[in-house]
Amino acid sequence: MRILIVEDEALLVKHLVKLLAGIEPSAKVVGSTNTIASSVQWLLNNEEPDLILMDIELADGQSFEIFEKAQIKSPVIFTTAYDEYALKAFKVTSIDYLLKPVKEEELQRALLKLKGLRNSGEQDGIQNLIEEMRRAKTMKYRERILVKTGQKMVSVNIDEIGVFFTYKTLNYLITKNKQKFLIDYTLDEIEHSLDPRKFFRANRQYIIAHNVITAIHPWFNGKLKIEASLPIAEMVVVSRDKASLLKEWMDL
User: Fold this and answer.
1) Number of CB atoms found within 10 A of residue 191's CB
2) Confidence of residue 120 (pLDDT cuts 50, 70, 90)
3) So where are the chain's domains?
4) Cα separations (Å) of 16 from 13, 21, 39, 101, 208?
5) What is the arithmetic mean of pLDDT over 170-177?
6) Does domain 144-250 bear CATH number 2.40.50.40?
7) From its phi and psi, is residue 34 left (phi > 0), alpha (psi between -120 and 50) or beta?
8) Gap between the Cα atoms of 222 and 95, Å rounded
9) What's the whole-number mean pLDDT along residues 150-155?
């Protein structure tokens, strides 16, 4: 199997090469590129690889631009730090993706999936991904939210908010200066209108801003406990399934 790696992090390239050697000894990395331009140049001047491992965010832009400049028929496995709009796109396609840091068992699963695919092109799926990314580039996230205070409503800037939470069927927010307000939106509605780089859905009860998290601590059974600079009544615990996503998100 001939593999092209498109990745701008040198350490991750080495990591992928090492994983591939252990999982698929017959695999040969025939090229490694780190920008949109170098990837297009490689694809135009070399034999089509059997597989492309491709990072979504490259130093000079998003890798979907490569598909606009070169015809790609090879199957693609994308790698990505947690990126909500990309994950939504993958859910409706047969393209696979791996969250960074890439784990051996997940790469092995992806390779097994690709071996089972009859159509190596999957161009319809790639086009869906491209369109989703285009929409995301122009997406406008919420900048303000109306809150109740006494008999009136006032507007609070999103950047002033530290946490959204549910308590006894009602929904609230706490600002970074520790003011608490009642809101009319559900957490699900709020979550989809926020910039996912700034806010994390910790669990069913809490959405928390990046810059109010002071630390994360190991908890029971692979869970994580969030320590925040705000007065939060209940302990904010992240499930084992979401623990790796929180670590990735905190590192962006």
Assistant:
1) 16
2) very low
3) 2-137, 144-250
4) 5, 9, 17, 10, 32
5) 94
6) yes
7) alpha
8) 29
9) 88
Is the separation of the CB atoms in 114 and 75 below 8 Å? yes
Report pTM.
0.52
Q: What one-character-per-residue DSSP string does 90-151 give?
A: HHTSS-EEEESSPPHHHHHHHHHHHHT-S-S--HHHHHHHHHHHHHHHT-----EEEEEETT
| Cα angle 250-99-209, degrees, rounded to a multiple of 5 | 25
Asked if the peptide bond before residue 101 counts as cis, ω within 30 degrees of 0, the response is yes
Residue 51 tokens read as 């597989």
Residue 147: CB atoms within 10 Å: 21
Q: Domain 2-137, what architecture?
A: 3-Layer(aba) Sandwich (3.40)
User: Is the pLDDT score of 8 beyond 50?
Assistant: yes
Mean pLDDT check: name the lowest of 19-23, 109-113, 129-133, 202-206: 129-133
Please, which residues bridge with residue 171 across strands?
166, 183
Q: What is the 3-state secondary structure (H, E, C) of 177-213?
A: CCCEEEECCCHHHHHCCCCCCCEEECCCCEEEEHHHE
Question: What is the average pLDDT across 215-236?
Answer: 90
SS3 call for 48: coil
Please report, for residues 5, 155, 193, the alpha-carbon distance to residue 141 in angstroms, rounded to integers and kept in the order given.
33, 16, 6
- Amino acid 205: pLDDT: 94
| Residue 49, token pair as written in the block | 């690889």
